[in-house]
């Protein structure tokens, strides 16, 4: 089974010849279209079964409530009070409304979808829109989580599956991917050699900011593409440590790693 799955990654080879944005668009479109039969067939059944289950639960709960309400009403009548409390009417109406809604939902999804062409058309339009929007979002925002996930997927498919499992090297075809991955991973900074005692990472871009962490000689931090200059003329870089802490460090004491 694993061998068969690995063979499917030969399809990744011709895709690697295409620009990154076109690869994203094609795969997005294929994934959405492939999900269509699952959503159309499975989702209505889940909704129908859920409606039946909720209907049964509501009936059981309402039965217990009605028994309790009946006892209280009989006790009130024995005391000569024949007025029915408003909360009884409210609860009865609420239960009837819920049961009616669940029954309508069940009946609705018992019927097979009549206009399949409209659903197919809707899915195709959705797939097309996502195939346009997602590549733009990934290309224009390379440091976001979803962009990193995509480029990591490309790296995994190219190196782990195509190169190692199938023995085909895509490094020449995907030079652009490697470059983009380096950009996505972010620029790293380290302390200048003369700062042996280390440097402080502060909560705000100022010498008055609280210290959230420290950077030792030899350690690196990732630059988060933000910088500010304080009233003293010191430029501060927003960085992230290996532990995930974010803060600001003076550009005067660090250099690119």
From TrEMBL:
Q: Does the keyword Transmembrane apply?
A: yes
Q: Which InterPro entries match?
A: SH3-like_bac-type
Identify the residues that the record assigns to the SH3b domain, covering every copy. 186-257
Q: Membrane-spanning residues where? A: 20-40, 122-139
What does the UniProt keyword field contain?
Membrane, Transmembrane, Transmembrane helix
Q: What is this protein called?
A: SH3b domain-containing protein
What organism does the record attribute this protein to?
A: Metabacillus niabensis
């Amino acid at each position: 089974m694993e061998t068969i799955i690995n063979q499917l990654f030969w399809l990744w080879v011709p895709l690697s010849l295409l620009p990154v944005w076109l690869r994203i668009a094609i795969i997005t479109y294929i994934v959405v279209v492939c999900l269509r039969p699952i959503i159309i067939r499975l989702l209505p059944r889940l909704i129908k079964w859920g409606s039946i289950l909720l209907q049964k639960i509501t009936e059981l709960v309402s039965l217990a409530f009605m028994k309790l309400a009946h006892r209280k009403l009989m006790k009130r009548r024995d005391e000569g009070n024949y007025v029915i409390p408003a909360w009884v009417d409210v609860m009865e109406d609420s239960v009837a409304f819920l049961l009616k809604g669940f029954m309508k939902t069940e009946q609705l999804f018992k019927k097979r979808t009549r206009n399949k062409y409209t659903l197919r058309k809707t899915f195709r339009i959705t797939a097309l829109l996502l195939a346009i929007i997602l590549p733009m979002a990934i290309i224009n925002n390379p440091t976001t989580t979803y962009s990193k996930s995509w480029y990591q997927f490309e790296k995994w498919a190219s190196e782990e599956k195509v190169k190692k499992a199938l023995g085909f090297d895509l490094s020449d075809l995907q030079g652009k991917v490697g470059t983009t991955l380096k950009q996505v991973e972010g620029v790293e900074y380290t302390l200048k050699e003369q700062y042996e005692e280390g440097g402080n990472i502060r909560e705000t871009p100022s010498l008055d900011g609280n210290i959230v962490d420290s950077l030792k000689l030899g350690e690196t931090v990732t630059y988060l593409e933000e910088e500010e200059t304080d009233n003293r003329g010191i430029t501060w870089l927003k960085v992230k440590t290996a532990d995930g802490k974010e803060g600001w460090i003076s550009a005067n004491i660090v250099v690119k790693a």
